DNA sequence: AATGTGGCCAACCGCATATTG
DNA sequence: CCAATATGCGGTTGGCCACAT
């Protein structure tokens, strides 16, 4: 919304310099009164033109500060609380695609802010990279996310849905998509060492090569979550970079780590990313290093 | 009980880009 | 077209809190 707030003050003669130079400006945590002032002002006049807004509302804050406070905290549709499994999965996938484009990623997580996603990434994901003593941007780490964490997340999502008995959840969409082959799935270009553990019948060189060059301009084409916590947005999900069997992203088969071990390591915890590194993670990384990937 | 440590997250900072006059 | 200003984005910081020692 484009609201003209310029007429509210003697703005034409105001100094145009950065208001942060103003010694009267407040910094630090916002008070309840400031929050209410900002909310009331925006509800009456709309958002935008933040510097003018800050002045006209009588807030001794920079426009930047007001904007940040509104977008990250006060905005009515901002979603608070833990990042869900579905959101974790989406963050991982979108980050693998776009890197640290937090605002772009946030656009695809309704109610989540770039700041929140950024914080999540730094505190949870980077922590594990640190534990592994590898760079978060390294191929090893990215592959670990892609071929271990994300499939596990899908399994956990499915397990959670199964246990809760919710029939129309994201996981049902996942299952349906996979089972019915509703969408065109594109296989990842897998590390050779890892490919052996994947049901080869689901991988073809044709679509594998397609994956690497898939021209995905808008992830909405691929992801839409049934967001149970946020207005029941109708959604589906389609992974361009994975091909799965019915139980998850790939078939671990007899060569994988035993299912029980897998469950112990991942399904016993509330937070998927909070577990310590397990044997398979280390094994996977080791294989990658050994194969020079 | 006191102190140290680490995680979390709101807020700030600096820069790049867009908009305006 | 250009300079000034506003806006948006990603990186970083600092304070609070919980937990460990």
Verbal overview:
Helices cover 48% and strands 0% of the residues. The relative contact order is 0.10. It has two domains: 6-74, Arc Repressor Mutant, subunit A; 137-290, no CATH class. By secondary structure, the chain is mostly helical. It is elongated and about 55 Å long. It binds a DNA duplex (21 and 21 nucleotides) through helix 2, helix 3 and helix 6.
Précis, in short:
Residues 1-26 are annotated as: Disordered. The chain has helices at residues 32-45, 50-56, 63-74, 85-98, 102-106, 114-131, 139-164, 170-180, 192-195, 205-213, 259-266, 279-290. The N and C termini lie far apart (50 Å).
What layout of secondary structure does this protein have?
Elements: H1 32-45, H2 50-56, H3 63-74, H4 85-98, H5 102-106, H6 114-131, H7 139-164, H8 170-180, H9 192-195, H10 205-213, H11 259-266, H12 279-290
Helix pairs in contact: 2-3, 4-7, 7-8, 7-12
The structure holds a DNA duplex (21 and 21 nucleotides).
GO molecular function: DNA-binding transcription factor activity; sequence-specific DNA binding
Domain Myb-like: 22-74, 75-125
Region (Disordered): 1-26
Fraction of residues in H or I helices:
40-55%
Q: Which structural category do the helix and sheet elements fall into?
A: mainly alpha
Low-confidence stretches: 1-22, 167-172, 174-277
**Element order, helices and strands?**
HHHHHHHHHHHH
Question: What keyword list fits this structure?
Answer:
12 helices, repeat, EOBI/EOBII-like_plant, DNA-binding transcription factor activity, Homeodomain-like_sf, SANT/Myb, DNA-binding, Arc Repressor Mutant, subunit A, 48% helix, mainly alpha
């Amino acid at each position: 919304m484009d609201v003209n707030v310029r007429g509210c003050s003697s703005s034409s003669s105001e100094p145009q310099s950065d208001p942060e130079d103003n010694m009267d400006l407040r910094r630090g945590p916002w008070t309840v009164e400031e929050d209410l002032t900002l909310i009331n002002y925006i509800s009456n006049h709309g958002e935008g033109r933040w510097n003018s807004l800050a002045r006209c509302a009588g807030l001794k804050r920079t426009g930047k500060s007001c904007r940040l406070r509104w977008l990250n905290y006060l905005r009515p549709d901002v979603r608070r609380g833990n990042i869900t499994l579905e959101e974790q999965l989406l963050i991982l996938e979108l980050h693998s695609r776009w890197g640290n484009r937090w605002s772009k990623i946030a656009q695809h997580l309704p109610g989540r802010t770039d700041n929140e996603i950024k914080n999540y990434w730094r505190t949870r994901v980077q922590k594990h990279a640190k534990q592994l003593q590898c760079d978060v941007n390294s191929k090893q780490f990215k592959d670990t996310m892609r071929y271990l964490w994300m499939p596990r997340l899908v399994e956990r999502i499915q397990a959670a849905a199964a246990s809760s008995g919710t029939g129309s959840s994201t996981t049902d969409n996942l299952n349906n998509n996979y089972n019915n082959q509703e969408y065109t799935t594109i296989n990842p270009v897998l590390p050779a060492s890892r490919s052996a553990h994947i049901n080869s019948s689901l991988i073809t060189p044709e679509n594998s090569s397609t994956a690497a060059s898939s021209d995905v301009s808008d992830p909405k084409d691929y992801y839409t979550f049934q967001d149970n916590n946020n207005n029941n947005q109708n959604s589906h999900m389609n992974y361009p970079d994975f091909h799965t069997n019915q139980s998850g992203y790939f078939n671990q088969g007899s060569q994988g780590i035993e299912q029980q071990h897998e469950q112990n390591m991942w399904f016993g915890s509330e937070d998927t990313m909070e577990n310590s590194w397990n044997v398979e993670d280390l094994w996977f990384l080791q294989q990658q290093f050994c194969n020079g990937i």
